[in-house]
Automatic annotation (TrEMBL):
<dbReference type="InterPro" id="IPR027417">
    <property type="entry name" value="P-loop_NTPase"/>
</dbReference>
<protein>
    <recommendedName>
        <fullName>Sulfotransferase domain-containing protein</fullName>
    </recommendedName>
</protein>
């Protein structure tokens, strides 16, 4: 996915870690992605591509067990898994709307792909300067965050105050807690070993064209084009049915070759 030059900062995460509150505050000072994810950038499974060489990203992460509780508590689990499985949907089915948290934990299958999402951003497809910060440490990391985003430090006093997290593992049965720990415990330990915040800079940059040819970006691109072509049908644009069938054929061929 390529994005507008107008966007200066993208805030992203695998969800359930306060992404929206940070975007809502930051948009007062920088052009950001949409807090309601209308542009599809808030939880994109790979970093987006931009022709803006000044683009910066902020990636928030936290305990994946708590993130899961948060998503189910707000009934976001179905649509969120659809978003995060954008590149995995031919391998993994999204969480059904009717599924309960206890059943999801007992199933033992990560249908959010949290770990893959994180390392796509942290290592595999890092393509712009990115500030990685733990959700529960963000209030202790404001000075380096403001330096990174080039926001005057006098604005720190305007930053929202910490609030008690609504989601808690203690509200779950012991069995569900144990099942979630079995599912995400190893990944959570990997995250715990990371610094509270870290600025990561890509070793080298590639052209947007070359990056689009990478399979993950091609997958996102095809999904975007497929969505846009469906909109063409609603607008009754001539030949749109032929075009959308071509995109379907390309996608089906790609899935068969994986």
């Amino acid at each position: 996915m390529t994005i507008s030059k107008d966007i200066e900062v993208i805030v992203s995460s695998y969800g359930g870690v306060g992404t929206t509150f940070l975007i809502n505050w930051l948009k007062k000072y920088r052009n950001t992605n949409h807090p309601d994810d209308d542009d599809g950038l808030k939880h994109l499974p790979v970093p987006p591509l931009s022709t803006n060489k000044e683009l910066k990203c902020v990636y928030i992460y936290g305990n994946p067990e708590l993130a899961t509780v948060s998503l189910f508590r707000r009934d976001f689990h179905h649509m969120h898994s659809v978003k995060l499985l954008k590149l995995e949907k031919w391998r993994t089915n999204p969480i059904s709307l009717e599924m309960k948290l206890s059943d999801y934990a007992a199933e033992g299958v990560d249908r959010f792909k949290f770990e893959k999402h994180f390392f796509n951003w942290y290592e595999d497809y890092l393509n712009c300067p990115t500030f990685f910060v733990k959700y529960d440490k963000i209030f202790d990391s404001l000075e380096p965050l403001f330096d990174f985003l080039e926001i005057p430090k006098k604005r720190i006093s305007d930053f929202p105050k910490p609030i008690k997290r609504t989601s808690s593992l203690n509200e779950l049965s012991e069995e569900t807690q144990e099942n979630l720990h079995q599912l995400y415990g190893d990944f959570n330990q990997k995250l715990a070993r990371l610094p509270d915040y870290e600025i990561r800079i890509p070793e080298k940059t590639q052209s947007v064209l070359l990056s689009n040819l990478k399979l993950p970006y091609l997958g996102v691109w095809l999904d975007d084009k497929y969505f846009n072509l469906k909109k063409l049908i609603r607008n009754e644009v001539p030949y749109s049915m032929t075009l959308i069938q071509k995109i379907r054929d390309i996608k089906n061929q790609r899935y068969q070759n994986t």
